[in-house]
Structure formats: structure tokens, C-alpha cells
Amino acid sequence: MTEVEKRVHFRVVRFMTESGVKLHIKSVPLATACVLYHKFFKENSLNDYDPYLIGTTCIYLAGKVEEEHLKLRDVINSCYRTLHKSKPPLELGDTFWALRESVAHCELFVLRTLKFKVVFSHPHKYMLHNLKYLQDWFDPYKWEAMPVARTAWSLLRDCYHGNMCLKYKPQHMAVAVLFFALQCHGAEVPYHKYADTPWWLVFAEDVTLDIIKTIITDIIAVYELENTV
Prior knowledge:
- The two termini are 16 Å apart.
- The chain is built from 12 helices and no strands.
- It has helices at residues 3-22, 27-43, 51-65, 72-83, 94-113, 124-137, 140-145, 148-159, 164-167, 170-184, 199-203, 209-226.
- The chain is mainly alpha-helical and 229 residues long.
- The protein is elongated and about 65 Å long.
């Protein structure tokens, strides 16, 4: 993937995230939308399709996949307002109906491209499990003083601006993000130095420190890419 393509995908995922916030979409359906988007462009070229139309379609499709009901009208209006901030809200007319028809046709095309494989396992459930157990290992006062959980969730959300979701196991991503969040706050897992087993192997038996460092490097690359967008 070229640097130009990476920047385009970053912008589109940012557009999808902003539109998702306006639609009050939960984190998992939004993650599904991003995975659908990245998987589509893994199989297709940016030169052949409008990435913002694909992004809008993936939001609508993710709502169906994750059983979070989204009206197509609301998706179109929110995405239009996000993409055209200086224009007035979209009214029922030729533009709206053209967009509606485009998204409806594009939805079927995306499904066919992905061979109807649109159900994914996300790092979120593993992250929730990991944070719960990690909190129990820390002194309550020290844990409350560090926003590790908030940092971890923010890092995980930002991961979807790149294609890490296609490269790594969700269990590994959850561990790596938590590892990075702890590093960001200069925190160490209590008694880790004296344990026979590294704490990350408790959460994912097949993860290695090299995998964790590689994922963290990719996360940092996403933030460096943001500076160029």
C-alpha cells in the first residue's frame, strides 16, 4: 500500500468515525464498519471506487451485521453533513434519492465482494476481559489514579485507521494495546518481575513480545500518519 493510499484510508476512517458518533453507533458496530471497509479495499483499488461511498455503505451494513438498527436516511444525512460541513443539511430531493440508490446498490456489491463473510471477532471483548483482571491485580487507589482503561480504549479505536485489524489476531491486538497503554503511563503490572509467566501470556498464550512490539510500532505509525493528513 502506498503512502497516498494510507492517507486516503485514514481520512475515510476518520470520516466514518465522525459520522458514527453523530449516529450514536456503539464501538463494535463501528469497528465492524471499518473492517468491512479495509477488507473491501484489500480486494479492490482506490482508483476504481469512491472510498466515501464505500465507507458510508459499510456503516449501514455494519448496523445490520451487529443488529444495531440504523435507518438508511439517517446514515446518508449524517455522512453527508460530515463530508460537506459548509453545506446546508441534505433535503429530500434528487441528491438524496441518488445517494440512497447508490448506497443500496453498493451494499449488495460489498457483500458480494466479501463473499458474504461479514461477521468478525473484534479485540473489544478480549480488552474488556483483560482490563477486568488487570484492575484486580493493581492496588485500587493506584488503578484509579491512572486512566489506563481510557487510554487503552482510545488506542484501540485509533487502530482502525490502519489495516491492523486484517493483520493480527484480535487477542493479540487487545494485549498489545493494553501493553502500550501501560507504557504510556509508566506503569508496570504488580509483581511481574517475580512471576514465572509474563502477564501477557495469561491473556493470550500464543502471543510473543515481538508480536506485541510490532503491533505497537504499527499503532505509532498510524499517529505519525495523522500528522501528514
